[in-house]
Amino acid sequence: MEQALIYLVPALGLVGLLVMAVKSAWVTKQATGDKNMVELSGYIADGAMAFLKAEWKVLSYFAIIAGILLAWSGTLVETSSPVIAISFLIGAFLSALAGYIGMKIATKANVRTTQAARTSLKQALKVSFTGGSVMGLGVAGLAVLGLGSLFIVFYQFYVINVGAGVNGLEMEKALEVLAGFSLGAESIALFARVGGGIYTKAADVGADLVGKVEAGIPEDDVRNPATIADNVGDNVGDVAGMGADLFGSYVATILATMVLGQEIVSVDAFGGIAPILLPMVLAGLGIIFSILGMAFVTVKDEKGDVQKALNMGNWSSIVFTGIASFFVVKHMLPETLSIRGVDFTSMDVFYAIILGLVVGTLMSIITEYYTAMGKRPVLSIVKQSGTGHATNIIGGLSVGMESTVLPILVLAGGIYGAYEFAGLYGVAIAAAGMMATTAMQLAIDAFGPIADNAGGIAEMSQLPEEVRGRTDILDAVGNTTAATGKGFAIASAALTSLALFAAFVGISGITAIDIYKADVLAGLFVGGMIPFIFSSLAIAAVGRAAMDMVNEVRRQFKEIPGIMEYKSKPEYEKCVEISTKASIREMIAPGAIALITPIVIGFAFGPEVLGGLLAGVTVSGVLMGMFQSNAGGAWDNAKKSFEKGVLINGETFYKKSEPHKASVTGDTVGDPFKDTSGPSMNILIKLMSIVALVIAPHISEGPHGEHAMSKKVEVKKEVKVVDGKRTETVTETIVK
């Protein structure tokens, strides 16, 4: 039975990938439209691939160097191994592959969504959402397959082959080596997210400032030299970047729960590894229930509510997962368990999982409220656009700051409740429950950029107004789903980081983080500062790249005669090149901060100061991520509100009006907030925690594997059948 359950995990990952292949083939078979549409789509696909190739070239150097250092470090302590380098490289490769799968299908689905919008809203939604679901299933399938397969190998090699117990140093070594997989995934995710974010916003800001504001032409007008780069950016930032982002988040959440599960002495039918296996099983089943939920995403006619359809798919997958988790937990876990002095039952674990699902749902609902068109926060920004650019900015900043209150209260309640249910394992399994439906969450998120691209192709191809009307409906909902996806990701980051933090404390041999100590308090303040300097570097990079883009667009308007009369074609490739070079150049510094800071602090000042640093980064980063993502999303939809007309003080205003120009300024400010620095916060938080976990054995303050909060216990179980009766004998040994 034990073996069957272990192999079930990668098998469920394979099911996800098979369904992904079927959906991808369906998208590919859809009509692509006329020659002009195909040509424009080809420009976007070529630009996206050019960026990925340039990014991968730089990241391959980083991965090789990091792999060598990890292999060397694995020889220095007994609870690691040079094999951690292989684990790291596999994680990095699969993270990049997840982003590539998403980008590839998005550049196929965009033009097919445009063509589908020529027939009906229902068909346009079906094509765009199916494209998004390919990405969601690809990310979840690769994560579960990769993590599940590596765990089987490491468990067999480091534990079973030497006859060791589940709670000894051997299993700790297996999980430490497995942590390399998460480190590789998160490292690539950070660079992909920051690099893609800089790319997309440099192009977007340049296209907006010169095209819409100065030249007075529509956002996606074929005459705008930056419009192809802008549409490429939607793919490399919001699709490839987001895919790598949630791949890393998914893996880190499962790993954190596994590391804490290793501390639990479990007398179960699976050789004592049930608490370690549970998060992987939940993730695998989450793929199946996400597939079922995807079937609910449809509208009946042109008046159908797209947001409601997406919510129906999302909530159904969450409900299915919650129901299944009851039976999984009761089947796998023993009746009573304990971690670090906290006793709990299997039902308490189930309650923690449900709490995680509830927290994730509430975070999505709250984020939707603060960023959706027609709701009070966005309407307040629209109203303040009536008095100028400055009041629009003030309104957006206010909404962003206000939007942190409810999510933080929900998050705090979730952390406290999960701990009350099942200690630190409860917090970790709550995060795993929240992330179980990642395939569905990512499908909803990736649908947005596909719809945005579809609208751009419709505009550039000068298709009938009704086509652009349908793509605009999808795009407006996509802005909201993108914001809710980022809210979901930052919430999972907070829960996951606490679990990783707890695992770090256990492995590093410390018992508490004492902020009365001056050095620890100093570490706390430095940690709180890091999200600010990280955001500064990312936003400044967008600003510099956008300036280059603005100058290039102005040059083309000035030096290439006939662009405005459709007589000459702009040099799109020049703008694509500017964004590509800028993003690759500028992503290095923010990434280096996340990777190097915990190493320097850990080795220079010890694990307790590093713990203070992680606490500061987590609190500050969660707040910064929420504020920036929600403010940017609200600004964006405030601008889009003018497309159908808005009522300000009894007067209706449309595009090209003065209030609309003010809303464009707000959207331009919010662009790097919501698509570059804001969504990078959750990766920053988790990556620094993963780095700390990997170096923990090297900076441990005591005999490795023994600390006051949790003694390592080796459990041996003998099962005998005498006269048809089954008896069990359990022997526990403290491992020093």
UniProtKB/TrEMBL annotation:
Reactions catalysed, as given in the entry: Na(+)(in) + diphosphate + H2O = Na(+)(out) + 2 phosphate + H(+)
Broad EC category: translocase
Primary site of residence: membrane
One MF term in the entry's GO annotations: inorganic diphosphate phosphatase activity
Keyword Signal tagged: no
Subcellular compartments: Cell membrane; Endomembrane system
The EC number(s) this enzyme carries: 7.2.3.1
Entry-linked Pfam families: H_PPase (PF03030)
PANTHER family, per the entry: K(+)-INSENSITIVE PYROPHOSPHATE-ENERGIZED PROTON PUMP (PTHR31998)
Identification of the protein by name: Putative K(+)-stimulated pyrophosphate-energized sodium pump
Species of origin: Algoriphagus oliviformis
